[in-house]
Design goal:
alpha+beta; 3-stranded antiparallel beta sheet; two-stranded antiparallel sheet; Arc Repressor Mutant, subunit A; 5 strands
Length: 91
């Protein structure tokens, strides 16, 4: 996995109806089901490799594809300032 650690910003709240709310500016992000599941698993402390395996098994999608999609999603979260992502330099 290319991701070592992910930490959501402390002023973000995830709602059950798949919204991510930024309390610093009132911005609201609507997540698709997969994005919501990834954030829930990260919040619950799952490691990246386990998240990818879980999604791959649940949706019958190759691990490589899931990893690519999750990495792209995390890049977007990082660019938007929603999460801090520590990338593994060795992969």
């Amino acid at each position: 996995m290319r991701v070592k650690k992910v930490k959501l910003g402390e002023y973000f709240m995830l709602t059950e109806d798949r919204y991510l709310v930024d309390f610093t500016c009132g911005e609201v992000y609507e997540l698709n089901l997969l994005g919501y599941e990834v954030i829930v698993m990260l919040r619950d402390g799952m490691e990246m490799k386990d998240i990818v395996k879980s999604i791959s098994a649940k949706y019958s999608v190759p691990v490589e594809r899931v990893e690519e999609d999750v990495v792209n999603f995390l890049k977007m979260l990082e660019e938007e300032g929603i999460a801090e992502v520590v990338w593994n330099e060795h992969q």
